[in-house]
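Take the subject:
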Amino acid sequence: MTPQRIIPMVLWPITLMTMFHRAVILGVNGDRTDDFKPVYAAALQFLNRQPVYGENLNTVDPHYLYPPSGTLLMAPLAIIDPERSRWLFIAISVIALVASAYLLARLFGYSAKSWVVPVILFVFFSTETVAHTLVFTNFNSFVLLGMLAFMVLMMNRHDLWAGVPIGLVLAVKPIIAPLLLLPLLNRQWRILVTAIGIPVVLTAIAWPLSVDPNSFITRTMPYLNEARDYYNSSIGGNGAYFGVADWLILLLRIAFVVMAVFSLWFLYRYYRRSDELLWLTTSSGVLMGTTFLVGALGQGYYSMLLFPLLMTVFLAGSTVRNWPAWLGVYGCMTFDSFYSVRWEAFGRQLEFNKVTWGWSLLMIAVFCSLLFRYLDMRRDGVASLDDSGAGVADPALTDGAGDGGEGRGAVATVEK
């Protein structure tokens, strides 16, 4: 038997049982953190023409933070009782994750029957990001699905349709708004028509139907811009919890923004034409990872939006073909707990820092991979990559020699 037959035979039963455990056992059991409760309450209040944004934001309980357009889309949840509504939401979330695994495989050129699909699903449901999305009953599964549908449609040049899934996500949870930079850079302007138009139209519909839509702007948005010191793995949130000096927090934020700017510039200049898939997926990971770190709120289960970046390990030229990147992945995606009875303070430090250092290490690994590649290209006189992916020498860099040498890893080709 070939590995392509052995891997599915081994992984499918393990994966299905892991999915069952995460969804039916852990998910239905729930946890003290319940992201679904405030969403259901807001949906019920919206349907009954009551204020939605009047809760006390000074508590550490989960709060309702969706805009009026998101409230409109979430309103059907309150048609049935809260327990069955939550179970239904978990079930649909699992379907969204399965669909996401399929789209991720298709994005990289693998069929639904490929050995890659059970591997992707096993990785999905083995991570903290997916497990806690189901346990806390959060919207993240649909964010991932919308993100991947956007990428697949964008790659296939269905521009207006590509804006639909990302537009629906933005109407509820604008966390992936930075991805709108990608169609701008790729000159696929029509994507923005539906990506921006859908949340605008839904907001226009929801605004007069809401009792207190202005409260979202006056109360909720200022709260969203604060770096709270609990359940927050961003640089600002982590720093606030551990009492890090403000100047150091600002310096770290600036450093990661600078690294992201260089990474995005390099990817755009050298890979957008030669390997659009590598450009799109790596750039999305840089945008999302940097947003988690430098934004006001970064929570561990956001890490599922980095799955397309991690999938590039199958591509030549990938920025995650190195062990520091995967040590970072372990930090931000592990379901392991580091609380220790014997070394309480040490375990607590590890537990509270693992997601922040995981994101940080992954972004640093991507940056360093691209930086070293750029330095190699400068040394070898490679100024650009042509449409076939071959290096094109710059006479100014080679004193007229123009040998057309390539930097290590400068050419990205798909390996299947």
Q: What stands out?
A: The chain has two domains: 7-225, 228-416. Residues 128 and 333 are 5 Å apart (CA to CA). Residues 7-225 form one domain.
